[in-house]
Each structure stands twice: as C-alpha cells, then as structure tokens.
Automatic annotation (TrEMBL):
InterPro entries: Ig-like_dom (IPR007110), Ig-like_dom_sf (IPR036179), Ig-like_fold (IPR013783), Ig_Fc_receptor (IPR050488), Ig_sub (IPR003599), Ig_sub2 (IPR003598). This is Ig-like domain-containing protein. Residues 10-180 form the Ig-like domain. The chain crosses the membrane at residues 215-237. SMART domains: IG, IGc2. PANTHER family: FC RECEPTOR-LIKE PROTEIN 4, IMMUNOGLOBULIN FC RECEPTOR. SUPFAM superfamilies: Immunoglobulin. The lineage of its organism: Eukaryota, Metazoa, Chordata, Craniata, Vertebrata.
Length: 279
C-alpha cells in the first residue's frame, strides 16, 4: 500500500497513455508525472501482488526522467500506480488492470466530473463494433448494438463497478468509475493575522451610481432645498395681501368720491366762465 506518512500533492498528477484503465497483456503503456518542479525528483511507484511501493526501474519499467515506460504488460502488472517525490510527497493514485482475456472495458482512468458525459466501450483484441452488454455492480444496465454506451450528465449515483460482456468472446475485468462533485463557486481564501486569528472578510465597495440614479438624487436634493423657501414666500405674500385689504377702502367708495370731486370742480369751472362772460 501507499506509505501512510506520504503527503498527497496534486502538483504532480500521474497521466497514462493510452488513457484507459484496462489494457491487454502485451500492450505498452507510458506513465508520466506532470511536475512543475523538476528538482523535486518525482518518480513512478506501484503496488502489485508481487511487491509494494516499488519504483520504476526496480524490476519493471524503464525510467526516463519523471516518466516510466512499460513496453510489454503482463497480468502481474495489474495494480495501483502513483507519483512520489524524494521528500515523500505523493500524487493521487490510479488503478491499472492488465487482462489476459480477449475483452476489456475502455473507461476513464481518472474520476469524471459531475454533469459530464462518459462513454464506455467494450473492446476485443481485434477492434470491432460487436454488440455488448454493460453491467454495473452486478446488474445489467443495457445492451448496445455497437458496443459503446454513453452515460449522460453523470451524478454520484453513477459511481460503481462496471464491466462488459460480448457473446462469443467473454467478459471484461471490472473497473471502478468515480464521479467528482463540480463546485459552482469557490470559497475565498482564509487570511490569518500575525496573532493566529482569522482576518475578517474584506468589505466590498458599493456599486457605482448609474446616470439615471444620479439625476434622481440631484432632483430630490433640489426639491429639499427649494421647498422651504417656496413655502415661506407664499406665506409672506398671503400675510401682506391680508394686511393691505384691511387698510384700503372698498373700490365702489373710491369711485363715488372721485366722481363727486369731479362734479364739484366742473361746477366751479362753469361759474367762473359765466361771470367772465357777463363782464
């Protein structure tokens, strides 16, 4: 088994070419550690029935840097493979199955993402599109005439042990298919202060004010400032008119007094003109 003291490091995942978890006896395979830091010294290791934690080149495979090439596989090469650094850091592991039979199931090596489509193929040593029955956890799913089955929008319920069967050729080994949860959002990173406490989340800036919102805001401000002056002006005009109305005479009285004054003046003018004429 993998060293329990090893620290798993996703920085150097193990990739397999060809990308499938089952292979025929006599096939070749290449396993590579995709490392970012070459100085870490990543190598391929495995656990099989013949040995545990053995390194590429130690009786199996041919190392080439962080890659291990196996030119001809045997059934005893079936096992768990992973990448490990000099310091003991390890990548996630994968299961490879080498079949001595005539049928294999081509399935993803790595866990598939929730919501993705996954295609399984039932293959013989001589590639053909023969009808195949697909089985999950011991129960028949369905039979496909071309030997290919697609699982649409997989969920955690699709996890399980899969195998296939071709009439006249036999049954493939079983392979476990894992489904990883797809996260729609990512949590913000946690910041620790010098004293070890967790820093509070940053305060987000308020959203910018749009042009229409700014116009409405200015209009409201003008109304708030203008309304008191407008109301006070109306009150002053109303008070002034009330006071003026209390002092002045009615219009009809003014007109009568004016007419009376004009009549008196007219009589005086007539008297003067008559006196002058008699003279």
């Amino acid at each position: 088994m993998i060293n329990q003291a090893a620290v798993f490091d996703p920085a150097a995942p193990l990739t397999v070419s060809p990308r499938r978890s089952q292979l025929f006896e006599g096939d070749s395979v290449s396993l590579s550690c995709e490392e970012d830091n070459i100085s870490a010294g990543w190598t391929v290791r495995r656990n099989t029935t013949r040995g545990t934690r053995t390194q590429c080149g130690d009786g199996w495979g041919k190392p080439a840097g962080s890659t291990c090439n196996i030119s001809s596989l045997y059934e005893h090469d079936t096992g768990v493979y992973w990448c490990e650094s000099r310091e003991g850091a390890a990548s996630s592991s994968i299961q490879l199955t080498v079949s001595g039979g005539s049928v294999i199931l081509q399935s993803p090596v790595l866990p598939v993402m929730e919501g993705d489509d996954v295609t399984l193929s039932c293959q013989t040593k001589t590639p053909s599109n023969l009808p195949a029955a697909f089985i999950k956890d011991g129960s028949l799913i369905r039979t496909e005439p071309a030997g290919h089955m697609t699982l649409h929008h997989v969920t955690s319920s699709d996890e399980g042990l899969y195998k296939c069967y071709i009439s006249g050729d036999g049954e493939s080994p079983s392979s476990w298919i894992s489904v990883s949860e797809k996260y729609s959002t990512m949590a913000p990173p946690t910041t620790f202060l010098i004293d070890g406490t967790v820093a509070p989340p940053p305060i987000s800036a308020p959203p910018p004010i749009s042009a229409s919102s700014g116009l409405v805001l200015r209009l409201v401000c003008h109304l708030v400032v203008f309304c008191p002056y407008f109301i006070s002006t109306l009150l002053m005009v109303s008070l002034y008119r009330q006071r003026s109305t209390g002092r002045d005479h009615p219009v009809s009285m003014v007109i009568n007094e004016t007419e009376q004054g004009l009549d008196e003046n007219y009589d005086d003018i007539i008297t003067v003109v008559t006196t002058e004429h008699h003279f």
